[in-house]
Design a protein that fits this description.
Two copies of one chain form a homodimer. By secondary structure, chain A is of the alpha/beta class. The first copy, chain A, has four domains: about 10-30 and about 185-325, Molybdenum Cofactor Biosythetic Enzyme, Chain A (3-Layer(aba) Sandwich), CATH 3.40.980.10; about 35-50 and about 155-185, Molybdopterin biosynthesis moea protein, domain 2; about 55-145, Beta Complex (Molybdopterin biosynthesis moeA protein, domain 3), CATH 2.170.190.11; about 335-415, MoeA, C-terminal, domain IV (Beta-clip, Beta Barrel), CATH 2.40.340.10. Chain A is about 20% helix and about 30% strand. Chain A has seven helices and 28 strands. In chain A, a hairpin with a 2-residue loop joins strand 8 and strand 9. Chain A is elongated, with a radius of gyration of 32 Å.
Chain lengths: ~425, ~425
Amino acid sequence: MALPYFKYERVEDVQQKLLSSAREGMRKVEMLDVRNATEYVLAEDVHSKRDIPQNDIAHFDGYAIKSEDTKLASFKNPLRFKIVKEIKLTERGSSYEISSGEVIYVPTGCELPQNADAIVPVESVEREGDYIILTRPIVRGFHVIHKGSDIRKNELVLRRGTIILGQHVKVLLDSGIFEVPVYKRPKVVVMPIGSELTNDPNERHKKLETHSYLISHLIEKNGGIAIQRAPIPDDPGLISEEVEEALENYDVIVTIGGASIGKMDFTWNEAKRIRRPRLEVRGIRVHPGRVTSVVLFEKPIIMLPGLIQSTLSGAIFILLPLIRFLAGLSPSPLYPKFMGKVKSVINIPEYKPFKRVRFVRRIGSVNNEEERFIDLLRYESFHSSVLLKADGIAIIPENIDEIPPSKTLMVYGVHGLF
Amino acid sequence: MALPYFKYERVEDVQQKLLSSAREGMRKVEMLDVRNATEYVLAEDVHSKRDIPQNDIAHFDGYAIKSEDTKLASFKNPLRFKIVKEIKLTERGSSYEISSGEVIYVPTGCELPQNADAIVPVESVEREGDYIILTRPIVRGFHVIHKGSDIRKNELVLRRGTIILGQHVKVLLDSGIFEVPVYKRPKVVVMPIGSELTNDPNERHKKLETHSYLISHLIEKNGGIAIQRAPIPDDPGLISEEVEEALENYDVIVTIGGASIGKMDFTWNEAKRIRRPRLEVRGIRVHPGRVTSVVLFEKPIIMLPGLIQSTLSGAIFILLPLIRFLAGLSPSPLYPKFMGKVKSVINIPEYKPFKRVRFVRRIGSVNNEEERFIDLLRYESFHSSVLLKADGIAIIPENIDEIPPSKTLMVYGVHGLF
């Protein structure tokens, strides 16, 4: 069954080669308005430009006072303080000042007037006309939120690698930061190849191309910007023309189909003809998906096989790790989902030196691992119905003959898929 | 500490009342082009309009043959079949037919010609000029992918409630379905209230309003479409005008700040003055966030408190469940994240009949529950720095005095937050 011309490299080796090439210049940083930066990944540590709060402010509606003046206040010796001003929240507290024997009314969040260092909450004090009557001393800093007590100026606010979410936008803006350096989301063009394909549902004599919707969605969910192209016919001239044009305009080129060695598979040869590649990978040791190939100039061309489960497998192991890395995310799109026992023996009849990917479903208990089983969905690489039923993928390592029943395997989710 | 005028209803009661009102007409369904429907939730079961594949097709490049003709083939009795045609993938296989003693070359995926019922793979047979030589019989259906073997016409493809991802778009299109009924994403206007606020970083004498970025991001990540408004001053006339206008144009109105009973808190009274509400909720039994209030006409006005941790708490317990429900998602934005032991005693000095939300951080082992602890981040409801440090929230139930050290608690994530 081994096809000629394929070299079938180890996935780990291919990933490593691709990512080190990416490190040498493919990964770009740009400055973005913080308000447009959600879901981007921060490319540098960010430090606050401000104290938060920016000044000592009142924690409650109340009277700003000089604590020193209140030392002798007691029930036996009530002290009177004159309310010389009521400040509105729209005013700056520091435009006003108090002298001994005076207080100023301030609302919650208001900057303290000059000379004031404590707040007497409005509901805890008796008022008589323009005066308040204090029957106990007030400690310095009472009900004051101190300058910088939430975040200090120059404090590290967010680390490089943070995925920017709503709370980060909020705190960055609060910190006086309006632009941030982020990893550029790579522009990834998705080019299905095949004369039998169309993207027009009304062209009834052709097959509607739909793989690109799945691959584009995965690209978007893993940090890239996907651009879907109309299918390109199996014509060597057209393919090389379109690929060369794409190399001008996009960061990553992905082809779907036409990557094998059949009579109508031109992509590999046409891509290699453009110029001498910095890196080439002809096949990977993963099944399905073994036909997945890469040609790298300054930019990578990732060739995915055309049968849907193979397309996905190539995307999971080669395409998405590269895109995630370019976008600043951890490379693997996989995350551990649950463990379960294999329901019945899994035989590995062929391609033994290959990693094996199988779409699986959970049977039995969600909570009890002892009663949770993994059901391998029927495998034919052209089947798409399994994608609707799967809870995740199981990865069967290289060079084993079988997996016995009841052996425990980890089931992985794929970001954007399940 | 109990403020007058608040009724503080149980969160579960408020959620239940709101969702049953939503069920009575607020939740809308629309038809969408499948290609624009990712992340929407399917409002009805969907059945395939086609068999997939639509015809019997070849699984390999090979020769389409009538299996009956091959019965007597053996090494001793090799049979010759004439190759009468080579079909291209762009042609319809059923336009051609074979007679006994004939084969037609078909590429992988090609529809079988009439009378053919099996495929002899190209690499498994000897060819002599225009003939192939068969030395063994071929069984009916050999290397044929049968019509409907992936998905049958009228088969249930996707259930109501499915969140539409890339693989669903693909399979829907393959099934001949180009439009789907989905729950409309509610348009949610976010209106910060406060004369001290601005959305213009250059207005230095005012405070930059930033809560709305966090709340809008959460709305978007939980099924809604967020529309951020410039801050509205504390002016009863302006507030009622803006709220009434918003009721015309949006599905849900959210205000931030101005919801309490201070001198400058006008939102509750102004909202109630518009007309007689179908439902009103004045405060909820959650701390922080207790000031969160609701007035419902045909559309709901959700009033969130202004201090960030309170704003978030109101969003998590009241706003997001409503939005998720309207968008067709399971109402709770919470998901269980990990269990951990409380590091030191948690005292509940006040608001004992209230549920308590605390932002927490994991300390110790990721994998070993016995060595994993929960660290409660310092609580002041105006602090936003805790949002950067938290791994999730702990929810402390009503009516307890304290949580002893080493007691195990569940930490929850919030969709779109952490």
